[in-house]
Amino acid sequence: MPPKKSVPTKNGTADKSVKTAVPEGRPERTFSSNKRAYYEYEVLNSVEAGVELTGTEIKSVRAGKVNLRDSYARVQNGEVLLYNMHVSPYDQGNIWNHEPMRTRKLLLHRKEINRLAEQSQAQGLTLVPLRLYSVRGFAKLEIAVARGKKQYDKRAAISERESKRELDRAVKEVFAGGR
Length: 179
Description:
The chain has helices spanning 35-40, 55-62, 110-120, 151-177; strands spanning 7-8, 14-15, 29-33, 41-51, 66-67, 72-76, 79-83, 86-87, 104-107, 125-135, 138-148. By secondary structure, it is an alpha+beta fold. Strands 3-10-11-4-9-7-6 form a seven-stranded antiparallel sheet. The radius of gyration is 24 Å and the shape is globular.
């Protein structure tokens, strides 16, 4: 068998190392998103937080049996707590199953907690969960500091969305008609 040839590089030296693309862990997967939050609130900034879950809770979350619709977060006693996130009981959980609407602790650094507490103290601002997803096997929650929209803001958002949709349809018809 002949010896393997090395491939010359731009600077003239031989490149004997073969570099392969190594996947960086598990791909990010979204379990639940709070689409209503973007309609109800004006999102100012967001933070990624870990969620303290029990064994049966994480199994239900991975099965997609979670709802963020009416949930919210508060800073209390130096901790960020998540309220009203519904995680359905795990099917094979028997007597060790979790409470579906229990209060869950969010895992953040002290500086992030202090910043969120400071921002949420302002008039009309609240902490709203936007989506629950996994990063390298850990459940993460994107929470946002948000301001509630007024009714006329919601109407403006709806009319803007509809006008954009009409424009896209018109453009599509023009380009599809030319074929």
